[in-house]
Amino acid sequence: MESQRQKKYAKLIQKELGEIFQKEARHLIGRTMVTVTRVEVSPDLGFAKVNLSFLLADKDQAFDLINDHKKEIRHHLGKRIGKSVRIIPELAFFPDDSASYAQHMDKIISGLNIPPAPEEEEEEED
């Protein structure tokens, strides 16, 4: 279970990384929209697991670009939060597949052949 400190730190990192992907990292990712869906921080606050969701691009290519420029992204993060935290965490990026999984499940459910429920006759009260 995460402590309040970890949750607060994770929320700060999520917010700042979102802004970094919108502004400073535009030259890396181009038109790709990157959403930071979740951040988990280790108890010592030295490691952050970041889940990313991609829109308008090839997910694998964008993910590889971000992983290749991990140091630069961490540097931008350090500039933004360096005054308010002691440790700038090491970042590990992971793709967030929840949206594609939900889309897949929706497709499966819509493809099911579910017969309508039988109509029950109403009983008359005496």
UniProtKB/TrEMBL annotation:
<comment type="similarity">
    <text>Belongs to the RbfA family.</text>
</comment>
<comment type="subunit">
    <text>Monomer. Binds 30S ribosomal subunits, but not 50S ribosomal subunits or 70S ribosomes.</text>
</comment>
<dbReference type="Pfam" id="PF02033">
    <property type="entry name" value="RBFA"/>
</dbReference>
<dbReference type="InterPro" id="IPR023799">
    <property type="entry name" value="RbfA_dom_sf"/>
</dbReference>
<dbReference type="InterPro" id="IPR000238">
    <property type="entry name" value="RbfA"/>
</dbReference>
<dbReference type="InterPro" id="IPR015946">
    <property type="entry name" value="KH_dom-like_a/b"/>
</dbReference>
<comment type="function">
    <text>One of several proteins that assist in the late maturation steps of the functional core of the 30S ribosomal subunit. Associates with free 30S ribosomal subunits (but not with 30S subunits that are part of 70S ribosomes or polysomes). Required for efficient processing of 16S rRNA. May interact with the 5'-terminal helix region of 16S rRNA.</text>
</comment>
<protein>
    <recommendedName>
        <fullName>Ribosome-binding factor A</fullName>
    </recommendedName>
</protein>
<keyword id="KW-0963">Cytoplasm</keyword>
<keyword id="KW-0690">Ribosome biogenesis</keyword>
